[in-house]
Amino acid sequence: METRDKDAAVADVEQASSRILEIIDVKGKATEPGATTSPCSDDYHQEDPYQALHLWSLYKAPFAELEKGMNRLRTGLPKDGWTITKDGRDGTVANNPQIIAESKDHRVKADIRLRKEITSQSPDLLTVTVRSRCYHAPATPVEPEEQPPGMWHP
């Protein structure tokens, strides 16, 4: 497993998310905040290995526009160097359209789903999950304890 600085992994994921939003090209509202890191294992007490993760949604746009944005991803992602590994249905009860794609350098994957409004509590939206591969964080050097001048050091 590759060792990589967390800030660099987060920057890659945020850059990929921004590019996906550009390709979708729908006037709507995107959720905040940005990417974070999380453990790669189910043990959330462990910080290493980690992955960068950005979960966001695009909403407050008509379903037809979100659908057009999903279609733009089908052509725009491959033109941008992504490989679409799945283009079908997500297998949920709602059976939402889903695209899963991997970046050309295999550092980032995206899972995009188009969800139709069922109730006022679940509006039309595109959900986007962008995640990095798993990395080890670089070792941080241990600083020797500060000691007053003139103290004996073994």
Could you walk me through the main structural features you see in this protein, from its secondary elements to its overall organization?
Strands 1, 2, 3, 4, 5, 6 and 7 form a seven-stranded antiparallel beta sheet that branches. The radius of gyration is 20 Å and the shape is globular. The protein has helices at 6-24, 63-79, and strands spanning 29-30, 36-39, 50-59, 83-89, 97-102, 108-115, 125-132. The longest helix is centred in the N-terminal third of the chain and has 19 residues, at 6-24. The protein is α+β, with helices and mostly antiparallel strands and 154 residues long. The protein has two helices and seven strands.
Helix content: 10-25%
The value of Rg in angstroms is: 20 Å
Counting H and I runs of at least 4 residues, what is the number of helices?
A: 2
Low-confidence stretches: none
Mean pLDDT: 89
Q: How far apart, in Å, are the first and last alpha carbons?
A: 37 Å
Strand content: 25-35%
Q: How is the main sheet built?
A: 7 strands, antiparallel
Task: Please give a handful of descriptors for the protein shown.
globular; 154 residues; alpha+beta; single chain; 23% helix; seven-stranded antiparallel beta sheet
Tell me the layout of helices and strands.
Layout (H helix, E strand, L loop, with lengths): L5 H19 L4 E2 L5 E4 L10 E10 L3 H17 L3 E7 L7 E6 L5 E8 L9 E8 L22
Antiparallel strand pairs: 1-3, 2-3, 3-7, 4-5, 5-6, 6-7
